[in-house]
Amino acid sequence: MDLVTACRVFVKVSERGSFTLGAAAARVPQSVASRRVAALEAHFGEKLFDRRSRGATLTPFGRDMLPAARRLVRLAEAVEDDAERARARPLRMALPDVCAPGELARLVAAARAREVALEVRAVPPEERAELVRSLDVRVAVTAVPPAEAPWIVPLGLAGVAPPPADAIRLESLRTGRFDPAAPQRIWIQPEDDVPHIRDRLLRARDAAGLAPMQVTVAESLVAATAEAYATADLLCCSAAQASELGLRWRPIGALRLARGYDLAADAPSDAERIRARLSAELARCLGVPAGDRSGGRPAVAR
């Protein structure tokens, strides 16, 4: 027996002195109201009402039970109100600050359509996990090696000038000892200043015979992009990011670099909620290629 629902009908009938009017107030058919009160009487082993042709009158037992029934109904309504407020509480989420504002807005809109009140913060990589630990956000997108990542974003090099080939080989950036031209540099933005990207690119630099200063970690994305706009330098970035910045993008020869992303959350259920309802939209926001947003992973050299 649903004790709360039965008590709600009991209270409504007692307030109106009629099964017909009480059922209407409880928004159930009269036959249902009668069955629920009868079930409650059977549960208690005593009659709650004297049923008469002109209405229903509380028995002495019914009068004694009415205050407790009202308290139970009020408590149940308070629980429902608290649950509604909890559902409406924003789920604060930290995302990479390389996500385009338009894509962040689309993610929030998609969340609303799926009954998730999402509030996003775009912050650098080193801050995102800390925001979860400090409980400033409930979920954060964190950088992980591609082998451990549900979302993978391939990286390449982008610059102002059209690339001469379908891929950029690092060996092509070597300069002669007496070449008067400034060496062409590759800028690593802060989002990619993580071992599985930075260290692999530095090793590839050394293997290609480039000068140490030809691969550099930038202080900010703005500073790195400004160098790409003003010189022949190249920005290490995703194809989606290059398109947003108006740069020409190509993969890096045989080197397959990629950002890997996963979710960190204080409560695992929050992360599962995002994965279940917003995986494709989050993939788009992060720059995952369109063909890989359903959960597939592109091949990434280790």
Automatic annotation (TrEMBL):
Keywords per UniProt: Transcription, Transcription regulation
Gene Ontology molecular functions: DNA-binding transcription factor activity; transcription cis-regulatory region binding
Residue ranges occupied by any HTH lysR-type domain in the UniProt entry: 1-59
Name this polypeptide is given: LysR family transcriptional regulator
PANTHER family, alphabetized: HTH-TYPE TRANSCRIPTIONAL REGULATOR (PTHR30126), HTH-TYPE TRANSCRIPTIONAL REGULATOR CYSL (PTHR30126:SF39)
Pfam families in the cross-refs: HTH_1
Family of this protein: Belongs to the LysR transcriptional regulatory family.
